[in-house]
Amino acid sequence: MIDPSLKFLLEQLAYQSPTLLVYLAGVLLATIFMSKYPAASILTLLGFGLLLVTAIAGTGLQSYTLQQRTSGSMPAAQFAQVSMALGICTSVLRAAGLALVLAAVFVGRGRTGEVRV
User: What is the Rg, in whole angstroms, of the alpha carbon atoms belonging to the chain?
Assistant: First the structure.
């Protein structure tokens, strides 16, 4: 029989699988185009890598804190504080990842909009 907290974690990751696949595709494409567009690829790789790690680690930490709360190891007030801090941290990290991807869109462009190779 599977542990309920592990089951919760796997379910949450399964729900996020479309997004996680996009992040993985971004990492893969950035790696493929690294030699042709190095600056944009590095920013893309960092951005999607950060988004991927944040999604997986945030879900893991959320699962862990929920397990601690349901087992009685964490009081309700502490659970609320930890959940809030976790939410803020993951939100900031996602924003940073998206900012890196956004920067990758515009890096290396000429003044007239022409792409420099």
Answer: 18
